[in-house]
C-alpha cells in the first residue's frame, strides 16, 4: 500500500475542463489507485471538485498561464501569488507523510524543485515539447532522476529528444460510463478544448462539405478563435454543446457516426479518442501524435494525412468499412482502468525500488 500525493495541473480547478485531458487522467488514476487500496491525496487549485473523490486539498493563488501560449524562447513567468508555488509549498510541508509525490502540472517549477525534495517525485508529462525552458528542465530531471518521468505516448516523448527511453503510460477510462451504440444518427462529433492547437476549423470545413451535422463539445478556452471559425463558415451545419460531464458527453458522442480529430500539434495522447471508441464510435484522425498510436487504421477508424480536409471527407465516406463493435473491443482490451492501473502501479513501484 502506497501513500501518494497527487499535485494537480495549475491552469484551472479540477472539474472545470480547463486542465483538458490531464484532468481526466488524474481523476481516473486516483480512483484506480484508491480501488487498489493505496492512499491518494489530491492537491489542486481552489474550486476543484470531483464527484467521487472527496477531500481535495484546495490551494489559493493565481492560475498559471497555459503553456501552449508560450513562445519557444519564453522566460519562466509566475504570478506573484502563484497557485503553482502555493501547491508545491504545501507539498514540501507534508512530504514526509507520503511515499511518492506525483506531479501532473506541465510547468517548470515542480521539475526544478525535484532535487530540493526528500520525497521522490514522479512527473507525469501531459504534453509534447512546447518551449525551451521546459524542455531543458525536463531533460535535466530525466537525466538526474532516471525513470521518474512518465509520458502518455512514444511520439509525445520523442518531441523532447531525451537520452533514455522513459515509461509510456498511455491512458484509460472507466468503461462502464460509456454505453455502446450500434446504430448512429447521421452526425459527426468533435471533442476537445476550443483552442487553435486543436484545429477545429478543419472539422467544421468537413461538415460544410459533407453537409453532415457536426456536434462540438469541450471547454470554450479561446473565444476569439471560435468566433473566427463561425465567421469563416457561417452556414456550416455545426452545433456547440459546451463542456459536458462525461455521462452527458458520451450520451451525445455515442450517437455519432465518427469522432473527427484534427490536432495541429503533437497531441500527447487524445483521451477523447478512447472515449469515442468505448462508445463504438470510430475515430478519423490526422496521423500525428497520440491518436496515431491509438487508432487502428482501417479497423477502428482512419489515420489520414495531417491538415487535409479532403482526407477527412474521403475517410468519412468509408465509414461503413468499420465495425463499431471492434471499436468498443479495442477500448476494453487496451484502455480499461485496470490496464491503466497496472501501468501506473508498475511505474510507481519501479521508482520506489
Ligand atoms: N499549461 N502552464 C501549464 N500547466 C499545465 O499544467 C497545463 C498547461 N496547459 C494545458 C494543460 N496543462 C492540460 O490541459 C494538458 O496537459 C492536457
TrEMBL record:
Signal peptide: none annotated. Residues 186-319 form the Glycosyl transferase family domain. Pfam families: Glycos_transf_1. CDD domains: GT4_AviGT4-like. Coiled coil: none annotated. InterPro entries: Glyco_trans_1, Glycosyltransferase_grp1. This is Glycosyltransferase family 4 protein. It comes from Gloeocapsopsis crepidinum LEGE 06123. The lineage of its organism: Bacteria, Bacillati, Cyanobacteriota, Cyanophyceae, Oscillatoriophycideae.
Amino acid at each position: 500500500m502506497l501513500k501518494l500525493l497527487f499535485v494537480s495541473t495549475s491552469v484551472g480547478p479540477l472539474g472545470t475542463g480547463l486542465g483538458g485531458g490531464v484532468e481526466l487522467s488524474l481523476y481516473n488514476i486516483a480512483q484506480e489507485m484508491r480501488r487498489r487500496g493505496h492512499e491518494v491525496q489530491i492537491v489542486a487549485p481552489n474550486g476543484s471538485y470531483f464527484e467521487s473523490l472527496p477531500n481535495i486539498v484546495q490551494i489559493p493563488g493565481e492560475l498559471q498561464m497555459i503553456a501552449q501560449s508560450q513562445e519557444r524562447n519564453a522566460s519562466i513567468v509566475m504570478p506573484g501569488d502563484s497557485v503553482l508555488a502555493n501547491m508545491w509549498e504545501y507539498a514540501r510541508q507534508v512530504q514526509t507523510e507520503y511515499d511518492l509525490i506525483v506531479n501532473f502540472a506541465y510547468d517548470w517549477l515542480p521539475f526544478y524543485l525535484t532535487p530540493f525534495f526528500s520525497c521522490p517525485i514522479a512527473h507525469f508529462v501531459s504534453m509534447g515539447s512546447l518551449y525551451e525552458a521546459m524542455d531543458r528542465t525536463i531533460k535535466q530531471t530525466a537525466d538526474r532522476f532516471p525513470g521518474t518521468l512518465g509520458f502518455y505516448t512514444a511520439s509525445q516523448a520523442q518531441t523532447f529528444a531525451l537520452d533514455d527511453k522513459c515509461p509510456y503510460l498511455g491512458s484509460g477510462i472507466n468503461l462502464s460510463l460509456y454505453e455502446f451504440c450500434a446504430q448512429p444518427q447521421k452526425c459527426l462529433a468533435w471533442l476537445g478544448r476550443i483552442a487553435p492547437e486543436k484545429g477545429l476549423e478543419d472539422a467544421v470545413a468537413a461538415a460544410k462539405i459533407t453537409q453532415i451535422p457536426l456536434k462540438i463539445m469541450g471547454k470554450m478556452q479561446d473565444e476569439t478563435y471560435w468566433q473566427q471559425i463561425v465567421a469563416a463558415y457561417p452556414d456550416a451545419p455545426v452545433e456547440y454543446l459546451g463542456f459536458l460531464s462525461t455521462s452527458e458527453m458520451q450520451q451525445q458522442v455515442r450517437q455519432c457516426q465518427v469522432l473527427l480529430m484534427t490536432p495541429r500539434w503533437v497531441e500527447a495522447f487524445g483521451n477523447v479518442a478512447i472515449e469515442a471508441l468505448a462508445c463504438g464510435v470510430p475515430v478519423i484522425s490526422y496521423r500525428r501524435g497520440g491518436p496515431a498510436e491509438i487508432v487502428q487504421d482501417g479497423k477502428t477508424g482512419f489515420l489520414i494525412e495531417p491538415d487535409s480536409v479532403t482526407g477527412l471527407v474521403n475517410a468519412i465516406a468509408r465509414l461503413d468499412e468499420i465495425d463499431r463493435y471492434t471499436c468498443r473491443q479495442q477500448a476494453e482490451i487496451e484502455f480499461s482502468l485496470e490496464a491503466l492501473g497496472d501501468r501506473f502501479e508498475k511505474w510507481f513501484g519501479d521508482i520506489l525500488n
